[in-house]
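To illustrate the input format used throughout this study, we show a single complete record. The first block contains the structure-token representation of the backbone; no residue identities are included at this stage. The design step must infer an amino acid for every position from geometry alone.
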């Protein structure tokens, strides 16, 4: 049975300040929890309405009722199990040959989808501005469908980083080069801006190349694409054989 104190702590983990205070975050769903065994993430405890068929007997396991699960889950329709995990200590950061760079993204669903895209295309690392939505946000973790275990996230002063990187900084712009004729450089930072405002002027000033996704519709009335949708289109073209 869960104590009121435990429930209060777990419920507080939907906020960044409490995730940092307790150094914990939640992972929901059996499938994703099982993926943690092949990652750097350490599980503190698993709460489940099912029998213990998880990673190791060394991980603390607590059987709970469906009512208790509803109290600690951040999902409208809770899954069977929740793992309480330790936040990762940020290790040394080095450029990869292809990176996604996020400038002020605020929507957890977009970040989660972009992490999943990165995993699909074999992109090992995403660089984020300090004000980009928190990687450990429950909605981000859920949207990644387990891909958060395989993609490294680094938060930093983005303008400082982009001015020092050896990679070619590429961003989207309506007046940029046609994506379908653009030749991918050997080392790339693909920069994606905020959902409503795009990338900051300070970031735009550090671009080496600008690309655009041409519109083919007759009306030409669609103003823009969702940032995660645009990321998928660009990655599909840049990684073409």
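Output of the design step:
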């Amino acid at each position: 049975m869960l104590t009121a104190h435990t429930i209060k702590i777990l419920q507080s983990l939907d906020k960044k300040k409490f995730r940092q205070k307790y150094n914990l975050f939640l992972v929901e769903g059996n499938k994703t929890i099982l993926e943690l065994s092949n990652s750097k993430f350490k599980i503190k405890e698993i709460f489940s309405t099912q029998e213990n068929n998880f990673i190791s007997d060394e991980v603390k396991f607590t059987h709970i009722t469906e009512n208790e699960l509803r109290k600690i889950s951040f999902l409208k329709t809770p899954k069977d199990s929740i793992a309480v995990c330790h936040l990762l200590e940020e290790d040394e950061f080095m450029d990869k040959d292809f990176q996604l760079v996020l400038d002020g993204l605020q929507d957890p669903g977009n970040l989660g989808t972009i992490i999943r895209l990165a995993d699909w295309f074999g992109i090992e690392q995403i660089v984020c501005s300090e004000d980009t939505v928190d990687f450990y946000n429950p909605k981000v973790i859920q949207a990644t469908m387990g891909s958060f275990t395989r993609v490294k996230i680094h938060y930093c002063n983005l303008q400082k980083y982009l001015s020092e990187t050896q990679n070619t900084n590429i961003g989207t712009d309506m007046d940029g080069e046609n994506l379908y004729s653009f030749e991918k450089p050997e080392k790339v930072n693909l920069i994606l801006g905020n959902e409503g405002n795009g990338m900051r002027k300070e970031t735009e000033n550090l671009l080496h190349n600008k690309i655009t996704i041409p519109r083919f519709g007759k009306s030409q009335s669609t103003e823009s694409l969702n940032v995660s949708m645009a990321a998928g289109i660009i990655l599909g073209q840049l990684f073409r054989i």
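Structural context for interpreting the output: The chain is about 30% helix and 25% strand. The chain has a mean pLDDT of 94.
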